[in-house]
Amino acid sequence: MSQEVLSISGLRATVEGKEILKGVDLQVAQGEIHALMGPNGSGKSTLAYTLMGHPKYVVTGGSVTFGGEDLLPLTADARARLGLFLCFQYPTAIPGVSTVNFLRAALRAQGKEMPAREFLNRLSTEMKELKIDESFRSRYINDGFSGGEKKRMEILQLAMLRPKLAILDETDSGLDVDALRTVADGVMRLCGPDMGVLVITHYPRILEHLHPDRVHVLHDGRVVTSGGADLARQIEREGYEPILGTAVAATA
Amino acid sequence: MAIQAKELTKDYQFGFSDIDVSVFRTAKGLSPEVVASISQHKDEPEWMLKFRLKALDHFRKRPMPTWGADLSGLDFENIYYYVKPVEEMSRSWDDVPDSIKQTFDRLGIPQAERQFLAGVSAQYDSEVVYHSIREDLEKQGVLFSDCDTGLREHEELFRKYFGTVIPPNDNKFAALNSAVWSGGSFVYVPKGVKVDIPLQAYFRINSDNMGQFERTLIIADEGSSVHYIEGCTAPNYSSDSLHSAVVELIAHKGAKIRYTTIQNWSDNVYNLVTKRAIANENATVEWIDGNLGSKVTMKYPSVYLMGEGAHAEVMSAAFAGNGQHQDAGSKAIHVAPNTTSNIVSRSISKGTGRTSYRGHIKVLPKAHNVKVSVRCDALLLDEESRSDTYPYMDIDNPDVTIGHEASVSKVGEDQIFYLTSRGITEQDATALIVNGFFEPFVKELPMEYAVELNRLLALSMEGAIG
Ligand SMILES: Nc1ncnc2c1ncn2[C@@H]1O[C@H](COP(=O)(O)OP(=O)(O)OP(=O)(O)O)[C@@H](O)[C@H]1O
Ligand SMILES: [Mg+2]
């Protein structure tokens, strides 16, 4: 058996009393790239939030281990310190907290603090790679950022924090062609044996850059089918209906 | 930065109380005899004694204000109104008693900074014990001393302005201060002189049941400019204390005064302060006012815009923890045409803490082309926290532009989640948001004060958890 960094089995979760995840099973091995697809409202973001530990999402069954540790009893900050990272579909603005201060606080919290000069150099380098203007250093995090700028800022945080596993929730949505390439290159540069990726997306284009090892389809709170990169192309061509039809038939 | 400051101060204690080195104190409570003995002890001229006694009269006649915070816990008879710690004014740092130096050490004023400062006027109990003026200030003709010395050495100048901005019958607490005042700073900046280093004073209460009634008078003559800074921390007491200061500023034609305060009284202190400025033609007055701690604070720095082209800037920040009430705000009285005022207030309530913004904008009939901008934002950290806004406007001239914006927000679950998802603990996440909320205020502070404020905030965040 390969080294699993994330192992989800039978995960059930509710939000506002409504069951959204109805028994999710998913394994991601160390350093692998997985894609999670599925129709709108199937529970992809809910899974991402539940894994990250958002207090609104209540786990009602199943288990999740991360790097061999039981993830579920931990608060979000403890999960992050274990090496889990979420690129938000809709990043939150925090007026008054500058990008620089935020990143330093996060690095310090994760025990990855470095001398100020090194920190600033690294920040500069990563910002150049992601084509983020220097002025964003002192801007308040996500405050007044455009959709695309927010997405790039998420990847910047990823680059600075270097987690074990990054969940990218529709990081490719709303990006222009060039920005998509920049972001995808950024992610590709970071992933490798030390960092795996679970990318949530509706479009195969980002997957052409990322070359996922596995593609999973979530439907109505369950992973209904999994396959190789071809599965994404098939979905692009034919939509979800044929897959869901057979998958639903198979589980019936 | 916030987190770093917090680590620095994890075991930093503001609640210490030093050995009492007081040598003279009046009897507890208030009477003409107590007032006379203060005046006599200071060897004051007759007019000042009369001024004090008349003020005492006003104080006794006036009812307690009922419109602001709850003052029912105040007992005027259970307070020492004057305590004198050392016999002689010290001229140099070497003469300062060791126990007092230790207090300053604990307050964390860096040595380098002390030397750099233009003059440190350190108020220990009711008397100034240490006071130095840098030579070039003296050469420029700038007067910077404690108020008692100001009265003694520059009586004519002092008398010309003292009590003119805030007369003793202005309000009950101004009357009280006028009767028993002691210490505080006296600053005079001559025509055209620009003081480029902030003048600073540190204040501290050090006796149980002791009130502190300092009096500050700053005069900036035509075309001059000065920045005065006052900051303080206070030890904890078992019984209630009263702090009631009066601050008068006079900015002459084209002059500029900035007055910066950060106050962090212990949570049993009633902090009832009257601060008022007069801005003459083309003068600018800026109040930068930060309030943490205390049991009750009532403080509304105001500016009377008396001359054409005068400008007022009031930037305040308040933090109310459990059981605390910060009733703060500001007033701008536009008497002359073409005057402008800009008021920014930020307040945070935590636990059962309560903040109130009380503002008064008045535009007189002759004051045309007035521009006013008021912006107050409140942040609530808990379900039970409370914030209220009481904006009053009396506009008697149609030719004004007034902008007024107010907001109350809660720290959002999603903001906390976003920060914690990066590994930051919930407490540190809250501290980051709180520091961020005060950012516009902190930006106005000199570096060392910004650091100190962040420290105090971090402490308040820890201490106020219910
Ligand atoms: N806070 C919430 N309150 C109520 N319902 C919620 C909440 N969060 C999610 N849901 C519901 O859960 C379901 C799954 O939502 P989720 O955001 O996980 O979908 P998704 O797969 O990410 O969709 P999309 O592709 O549109 O991003 C939806 O029906 C949604 O309305
Ligand atoms: Mg989603």
Biggest interface between chains: A-B, 31 and 27 residues
Number of helices of chain B: 13
Bound molecules: adenosine-5'-triphosphate, magnesium ion
Largest sheet of chain B: 11 strands, mixed
Give the strand content of chain A.
25-35%
Name of the CATH architecture of one domain in chain A: 3-Layer(aba) Sandwich
pLDDT averaged over residues of chain A: 92
Which percent range fits the helix content of chain A? 25-40%
Envelope shape of chain B: globular
Give the name of the CATH superfamily of one domain in chain A.
Answer: P-loop containing nucleotide triphosphate hydrolases
Helix percent band of chain B? 25-40%
Task: Find the structural class of chain B using helix and strand composition.
Answer: alpha/beta
Give a description of the structure:
The complex is a heterodimer of chains A (252) and B (466). Chain A is α/β, with parallel strands linked by helices. Chain A has a domain at 4-93 and 166-251: Rossmann fold (3-Layer(aba) Sandwich). Chain A has helices at residues 44-52, 76-82, 99-109, 116-129, 147-161, 177-190, 204-210, 229-238, 241-251; strands spanning 4-15, 18-29, 33-37, 57-66, 69-70, 84-87, 165-169, 196-200, 214-219, 222-227. In chain A, the strands form two sheets. A six-stranded mixed sheet of chain A has the order 6-7-8-3-9-10, sandwiched between helices. A four-stranded antiparallel sheet of chain A has the order 2-1-4-5. In chain A, strand 4 and strand 5 (69-70) form a beta hairpin. In chain A, helix 5 runs parallel beside helix 6 (177-190). The longest helix of chain A has 15 residues, at 147-161. Chain B is of the alpha/beta class and 466 residues long. Chain B has two domains: 2-299, no CATH class; 418-466, no CATH class. Chain B has 13 helices and 23 strands. Chain B has helices at 2-8, 32-41, 46-61, 98-107, 111-116, 135-140, 147-153, 155-161, 172-180, 413-420, 426-437, 439-442, 447-463; strands spanning 24-25, 83-84, 120-124, 127-131, 143-146, 185-189, 199-204, 215-220, 225-233, 241-243, 246-251, 256-265, 269-279, 284-293, 296-299, 302-305, 311-320, 325-334, 340-349, 354-363, 370-380, 386-395, 400-410. In chain B, the strands form three sheets. In chain B, strands 5, 6, 8, 10, 11, 13, 15, 16, 18, 20 and 22 form an eleven-stranded mixed sheet that branches. The longest helix of chain B has 17 residues, at 447-463. The two termini of chain B are 25 Å apart. Mean pLDDT of chain B is 82; it is low at 1-19, 87-91, 112-133, 202-211 and 234-239. Chain A binds chain B through residues 52-56, 75-77, 79-81, 85-86, 88, 91-92, 94-97, 101-102, 104-106, 108-110, 140, 157, 161, and chain B through 1-4, 412-415, 417-426, 428-429, 432-433, 435-439.
